Amino acid sequence: MKRIIIDREKCDGCLNCNIACISAHEEGSNFYTVNMLSPDAETRNFIKFDAQKGYLPIFCRHCDEPECVLSCMSGALEKDPLTGHVQYDESKCAACYMCVMNCPYGVLKPDKRTRTKVIKCDFCDDKVDGPSCVKACPKKAIEVKEVSL
Amino acid sequence: MKIVIIGASAAGISAAKTIKASEPDTEVVIIAKEDRVHSRCMLHKFLGHERDVKGISFIADDFFETSGITWLNNTTVIGLDTQKKTVKTHDNQDISYDKLLIASGASYFIPPIPGLRESKNVYGFRDLKDAQLLDSECNTAKNAVVIGAGLVGMDAAVAMMERGLKVTVIEMTDAVMSLQLDQKSAQAYQQRFEEHGAEFILNDKVVSVDVDEVGRGKTIHLASGKVVPADVIVIAAGVRPAFGFITGSGIDTNHAILVGDDLQTNIDDIYAAGDVTGIAGIWPNAMKQGRIAALNMLGEKRSYEDRYALKNTVNFFGLTTLSLGNINPEPEENCEIFICEDRHNYQKVVLKNGVVQGVIIQGNIGGTGFWQYLIKNKIDISGKNKDVFGLSYADFYDQDQQTGEYRYAV
């Protein structure tokens, strides 16, 4: 499967990946027009800073054995057998947030505004040229690579 | 090979999916007493008319057809012959198996209170059938009484409030959801429920129910002397593993079906998963047990280690809470308690000798999944030299260079 591989040494914390992610999920917006002040502006990836270790990019791994899928009681989260990506069907989700509790890396989160859905990386599977965050990274700290399961 | 699964909830369906994904040629038969597959965590959405029966399913409509699974619904298992390797059903079928998974779940319990068990308008809130019976009661009832303010009781209460009933919740302890919350976080929910019309009677218990001439419980008497009128009564006083049909089979039990780390019972080729094992009565663990039991039935050697059960999330009226571990320690446990709050958030961390014992995160619960890992793996955080409320997975950041998967650096 394809996974976003992280080289954290290269990350300089510019947060372009955050903006690209928000824009990718705001209909009709691009990097320059995205409304960062919208209550729906939510990024699916994070960069934490540590005084010793530097920047630590935290991106959904679409895990081989995804704890979020195993915790989902509505069938909203499923691992696609072909792409290997964990996809989320908002119409099925009942917002119980057991997936938030179960993600060992703290990637998943409830939406800020309504608390009725989960904000989760979809690998930009609807876009032909792959994840928007990867395209936006000026340092090539994140790259899509094929990994064997 | 033919695998028979008893039960079609989290553990049973997860096992069936796993089997069909790994070895599609394996014959799988699922036997369930229910009419259709549904997620019991969404019963309140059905009762509150937010979703229909189809909307509370957690599998695709054509799941059984496309995966080639034999689905025996409305079928109750009444016995087991471990010599002949057959399962007997209520309609006298003998279904043979090579391997058997018991995922029959748990059933609710009506306390032996005078008048309560006899009342015809008393319901549990466990299966779709319970919710359907309650649904028709809600068409005419005005006053609903919920006995027990745990998560199930609160789910039932919120659904009946949606339906316009006057709901009274009676609870023995001094707070709602006392297994998951502390006083402060419980109060936040109680207040929201009250604002929406619910009434709570805490520190009290039902001593008797007056039954009318047609057998319906109409008046509930409490230990305090209070009297509560009821048109419909929901009992949410806990559940017990359901395995009556294995009597005489030789399978070891102790209030639950006993299994080893491979989820096999003491009888070869018979496995158990989910609530019936009493290991951890929560959906994610049942799913994982179903998966691991399935892989082991197919010949793998997987071990189930995730026995940590004290965890839950709560979401009522848009107020979300994560609760893990020991959140109300006794003074003699000598725990340190840290609290951080603002207008929208309440966070509590219970520490002992540098190891997190429990947390409550109420409000913004985004990104809090790492806490469960820290608690269940008893990770010492004292070396982090950091404010506990600033912790995140980043403090344990590590990656597998080959696969790019994250690991914990501890």
What does this structure look like?
The complex is a heterodimer of chains A (149) and B (410). In chain A, strands 1-8 form a two-stranded antiparallel ribbon. In chain A, 46% of the residues are buried. The radius of gyration of chain A is 15 Å and the shape is globular. Chain A has two domains: 1-59 and 121-149, 2-Layer Sandwich (Alpha-Beta Plaits); 62-120, 2-Layer Sandwich (Alpha-Beta Plaits), CATH 3.30.70. Chain A is α+β, with helices and mostly antiparallel strands and 149 residues long. Chain A has helices at 16-24, 67-71, 98-102, 132-136, and strands spanning 2-6, 46-50, 54-58, 77-79, 86-88, 109-110, 118-119, 142-146. The termini of chain A are close together. Chain B has 410 residues and is an alpha/beta fold. Chain B folds into three domains: 2-107 and 239-297, FAD/NAD(P)-binding domain (3-Layer(bba) Sandwich); 122-235, FAD/NAD(P)-binding domain (3-Layer(bba) Sandwich); 311-408, Enolase-like, domain 1 (2-Layer Sandwich), CATH 3.30.390.30. Chain B has helices at 10-22, 43-47, 63-67, 128-138, 151-162, 183-195, 283-297, 370-376; strands spanning 2-6, 27-31, 70-72, 77-81, 86-89, 94-96, 99-102, 106-108, 122-123, 143-147, 166-170, 199-201, 206-211, 217-222, 227-229, 232-235, 239-241, 270-272, 311-316, 319-325, 336-341, 346-352, 355-362, 397-399, 406-408. In chain B, strands 3-2-1-7-18 form a five-stranded parallel β-sheet, covered by helices on one side. In chain B, strands 9-16-10-11-12 form a five-stranded parallel β-sheet, with helices on one face. In chain B, a hairpin with a 6-residue loop joins strand 24 and strand 25 (406-408). In chain B, helix 1 (10-22) runs parallel beside helix 7 (283-297). Chain B is globular and about 55 Å long. At the A-B interface, strand 1, strand 2, helix 2, helix 3 and strand 6 of A face helix 1, helix 7, strand 19, strand 20 and helix 8 of B.
